[in-house]
Amino acid sequence: MKIYNSATHQKEDFRPLEEGKVRMYVCGPTVYDNIHIGNARTFISFDVIRRWLIASGYEVTFAQNLTDVDDKIINRANEQGRTAEEVATEFSDKFIGVMRAANVLDPDVRPRATKEIGAMIGMIKTLIEGGHAYAADNGDVYFSVRSDSAYGEVSGRNIDDLMVGARIEENGDKRDPLDFALWKAAKPGEPSWKSPWGEGRPGWHTECAAMVHRYLGTPIDIHGGGSDLAFPHHENECAQATCAWHEGFANTWMHTGMLLVDGEKMSKSLGNFFTLAEVLEKHSAAALRLLMLQTHYRSPLDFSWERLEGAENSLARIAGTCRNLKWAADHAEGEPNAELAAALTAAMEHASADYQACMDDDFNTAGAVAAYFQLVTEANKYLEQAAGAVDEDAARTCGAVIFAALAQLGVRLPVIEESLPAELAAVAGELVGFDGDDVDAAAEAILEARAQARAAKDWATADAIRDRLKDLGLAIEDTSAGSRIKRA
Ligand code: AMP
Ligand code: ZN
Question: Which pTM does this prediction carry?
Answer without folding.
Answer: 0.90
